[in-house]
Design goal:
heterodimer; A: mainly alpha; B: about 325 residues; mainly alpha
């Protein structure tokens, strides 16, 4: 599944979950926050960039050209070239695909593992809940990057392993979130009717998960870039923003543009996600009943 | 209070045990002979036999765990494959550097976050509030390793004001030490400042609408006195908790920051250990980091309940 179809699927699910009136009121609130709309548009642009990379960047992102080493930005190479003569624009565009993949798939993994565990913990309570919560406490005690480094050490560095490591690092948040929602719904309903709870919990969970995902995805995108920067994620010559920044660090004096664009790309994508997330929180505010 | 503390300590002990099991299992999951994993590929037969005997690698796994955990609890985390030094000695050498970096980062973060958060709350919905909130959002969104590279580009390469990398001990030369630490500390403190600013603003807004603040105003106290003597003190209590929860982010941030600025601390140690397949060091650093996180949060929780006597937590976290 591509990142867009995943995002679209979640959006449709959320839209179906929220009553039309509530959605309309929320939408009016969002329009009063133009920054969120701009953020959303930029995120969409990055999604288009990720999907359309082969058509948008016509040059080969891994093709080296020894006559074009560390050339400053020009008409032919708008973002300049790197230390191996590769076109930085093509690499930034293709890098968006890797970042989006890592960001979206890692959080989908966190949701796929975290939500069922949270449901089970919140629904059955008792000893099982206690065991799961103590495991979650231990899980949370590993700082995100340290856990990812530990896992990548065991599994070996690659994009897939980095995505799994980031996803597993984000999982406890989703266990706790789901468990909390189940507990509060159970308290409201006063009983443990699984069917009734599912009817009330699912709509709440979808909107809360979507809001949480907009917080987690930018963190996951930065985490992938950090792991790749450290040499523990995407391996060269694949164009990842993190590996590009790693290479750029050695040529700050002679080719500073190598550091500008991948960094600006990460910054603008994470900032846009955070802005759009704020708007989405307004749109789907679970308190608005 | 005592019951809460006992409960909290018990949970922390269980968490520490689970962490040790996870770390122990993690190293066992690395493919190959565990003795070779622990001793390195260059180890001779005698070296391998020494490791086998020390950790009882022919015993059942639970026995092996107990033996390893007993050694770890006494501070024996094995020897580095690369340097042959005990892991605990290597960590003890590197840790003060990272602690200094983290303390400076927290100081910078507090110096930015508290005034900005208070200003945003007191001047709510004005241009100051918008500026502070935008800065906070940017602080959360900016990847710290890119910020580090940009600072080097500007202050070291372009202006030549600060050294781009390296480390000098504080006791050797305080000025040279601070010159080299200011950029990494700022980079590490940025995200923390953003989170703390948001928290200070929110809790300050909550405190400003409290009854006792209205009472303070109505008994004729000046605005400044109300804010400085009553409001700020009370609004900072949740900030302490956030600081504890952010300890993990600070440790993660230190790994990257030390890599960029070539600071020979704890974070750089783990990255080097990963690349040289120095598993005992990776294992030791991960174990120590996770355990410190649990202990820091135990202390924060304890201080929190002491600071605010209303806290009597009985339920699950």
């Amino acid at each position: 599944m591509s990142p867009t179809s995943a995002a679209a699927g979640v959006l449709v699910a959320a839209a179906g979950a929220a009553p039309a009136g509530r959605l309309r009121r929320g939408w009016r609130r969002v329009l009063r926050r133009p920054a969120s709309v701009v953020g959303g548009v930029i995120v969409l642009l990055f999604i288009v960039l990720a999907i359309g990379a082969p058509w948008i960047a016509r040059t080969d992102p891994v093709g080296t050209d020894w006559s074009q080493i560390r050339k400053a930005p020009s008409w032919t190479h708008p973002f300049g070239t790197d230390d191996l003569g590769r076109d930085n624009f093509a690499r930034v565009v293709w890098g968006s695909r890797i970042s989006m993949q890592a960001g979206v798939f890692s959080i989908l993994l966190a949701i796929a593992v975290g939500v069922p565990l949270g449901l089970v913990a919140g629904y059955y309570r008792g000893a099982l809940d206690q065991v799961l919560m103590r495991l979650t406490d231990a899980w949370l005690a590993f700082p995100f990057l340290i856990l990812a480094i530990g896992l990548v050490t065991i599994m070996g560095p690659s994009l897939t392993n980095a995505t799994i490591a980031i996803g597993l690092g984000a999982t406890p948040t989703y266990i706790r979130l789901t468990r909390g929602l189940v507990l509060s719904t159970a308290a409201e309903l006063g009983a443990g009717d699984l069917r009734l709870m599912a009817r009330h919990i699912l709509p709440n969970i979808v909107s809360s998960l979507l809001v949480q995902a907009t917080v987690s995805i930018p963190i996951a995108i930065i985490a992938e870039a950090v792991l790749s920067f450290l040499g523990l994620g995407v391996q060269p010559p694949a164009p990842s923003w993190g590996t590009m920044l790693n290479a750029a660090q050695q040529f700050l004096e002679s080719a500073p543009w190598m550091a500008w664009w991948p960094g600006l790309a990460i910054f603008s994508l994470t900032l846009s996600f955070n802005l759009a997330g704020d708007g989405l929180r307004d749109l789907l505010d679970p308190k608005d009943y | 209070m005592l019951e809460f503390l006992i409960r909290r300590v018990a949970i922390s002990i269980v968490t520490l045990i689970v962490i040790s099991v996870v770390v122990f299992t993690g190293v066992r999951m690395i493919p190959g002979d565990p003795a070779r994993v622990m001793a390195g590929t260059d180890a001779d037969a005698a070296g391998l036999e020494e490791i086998r005997a020390k950790y009882g690698l022919n015993d059942p796994i639970p026995v092996q765990y107990l033996r390893w955990a007993a050694l770890a609890a006494r501070g024996d985390l094995g020897r580095s494959i690369r340097t042959r030094d005990p892991v605990i000695t290597t960590v003890a050498k590197k840790l003060p550097i990272t602690v200094e970096l983290a303390c400076l980062a927290v100081l910078i973060a507090l110096a930015i976050a508290i005034p900005a958060g208070v200003l945003a709350a007191v001047r709510r919905n004005t241009v100051w509030d918008v500026l502070a909130s935008s800065a906070s959002l940017c602080g959360v969104s900016v990847p710290n390793f890119w910020l580090g590279i940009m600072l080097i580009l500007f202050f070291s390469v372009r202006l030549g004001w600060l050294p781009a990398s390296g480390f000098v001990s504080f006791w050797e030369s305080p000025t040279a030490n601070l010159q080299r630490m200011v950029m990494p500390a700022f980079v590490l403190g940025t995200a923390l400042a953003a989170v703390l600013m948001r928290q200070t603003r929110n809790s300050m807004i909550g405190v400003l609408s409290a009854d006792y603040i209205r009472t303070a105003y109505s008994k004729g106290l000046a605005g400044r006195a109300v804010i400085f003597r009553h409001a700020i003190r009370n609004s900072l209590i949740p900030v302490v908790t956030i600081l504890g929860l952010q300890a993990g982010a600070l440790m993660s941030g230190a790994v990257v920051t030390e890599q960029i600025f070539v600071v020979p601390g704890f974070g750089r140690l783990i990255v080097e250990a990963v690349f040289t397949r120095d598993y005992p060091v990776v294992q030791g650093v991960v174990l120590i980091t996770a355990s410190s996180y649990v202990l820091i949060n135990l202390l924060v929780d304890a201080s929190y309940s002491l600071l605010d006597p209303r806290i009597r937590i009985g339920g699950n976290p």
